[in-house]
Amino acid sequence: MSLQDDPHTALVGMLRQMGHDMRVPLNTILSTADMLHEGMYDPLTPRQKKAVDRLQRNSQRLLAMLDDFLTTIKANAGDLTLKPERFDPRALVEAAAEKVRPFAADKGLTLRASTGAAVPARLLGDEKAITRALLALLWNAVAYTAAGEVALLAEWTADAAWTVAIRDTGRGITEDERPHLFEPFWRGEERPQIPTASAGLGLPLARALCEAMGGRLMLETTSAEGSTFRLYLPLSRAEDA
C-alpha cells in the first residue's frame, strides 16, 4: 500500500517496520555489552565495568522506548492483543521498581515500592501490559523529580480492584498543563531531567494500556510538593478465575 492510496495506514505500516528494523542493531549492542560485562573479551577494570553497566542500562531503556513506541501505534490502531495470565502482584511491583531504581539513584532519588497486605497472592491479568504501564509511570515520575523520592503503593480495594498509586516530590503540574498530560509526545515546558526518559509517550501509553484492560488512569493529586497518579484495574483473583 502506498502513501497516496491510504496515507495513514501506509504511514503506520512504515513506522511499525522501522521500529522492528531498529531492534536488530539495538539487540547487537545489548549482546555485545553483555559479553563485555562477562569478560568474554578481556577482564574489565572496575572503572570499565561501571561504564559497561551504564551502557547496558541505557541500551535496555532505549529498547524499552522503542517497544513503547510500537505499542502506542498498536493501541491507537486498535490492534493491541492482551494475554491474561496468573501473576504475582508483589513480585511484579518490585521487579518494575528495580528496573527504574538505578536511574533514580543516579539522580539522588529514593524509589520505594510496597504492596498492601490485602492484595491477593495471585491475580489474573496481562502481566506484560501491566508492567509496561507501571514502568511508564515510574519513568515519568523519576524524569520530572529533581529531589526527594518516588513512591509506589499497590492496594486492593473494597470493590475488588487492584490500584497502584505513584507519588513523586516533583514540582507538581500546573492548571495549564493538565489538559495536555495524556497527549502523545507532549512534554511541557520543563524537559525531563534524565536523558533516558520516554519521548513524550509515558502517560499516553500507560493510559492506553489501562483502558485496554478495562481500567483507568488518573491524576489524583498535584501540588507544589509533588503529584500522585493512580492506576485502577478491575482484575480477578487467580483462584476465582
Which short descriptors sum up this protein?
241 residues, alpha+beta, Heat Shock Protein 90, 2 domains, 5-stranded mixed sheet, 3-stranded antiparallel sheet, 5 helices, globular
**CATH-assigned homologous superfamily of the largest domain:** Histidine kinase-like ATPase, C-terminal domain
- Unreliable residue runs: none
- Helix fraction bin: 40-55%
Order of helices and strands: HHEHEEHEEHEEE
Coarse morphology: globular
Write up this protein.
The chain has 2 domains: 7-76; 85-240, Heat Shock Protein 90. The chain contains 5 helices and 8 strands. It has helices spanning 7-37, 46-76, 89-106, 127-143, 202-212, and strands spanning 85-87, 110-115, 123-125, 149-156, 162-168, 216-223, 226-233, 236-237. The protein has a 5-stranded mixed beta sheet with strand order 2-4-5-7-6, with helices on one face. A hairpin with a 5-residue loop joins strand 4 and strand 5. The protein starts with 6 loop residues before the first helix and ends with a strand.
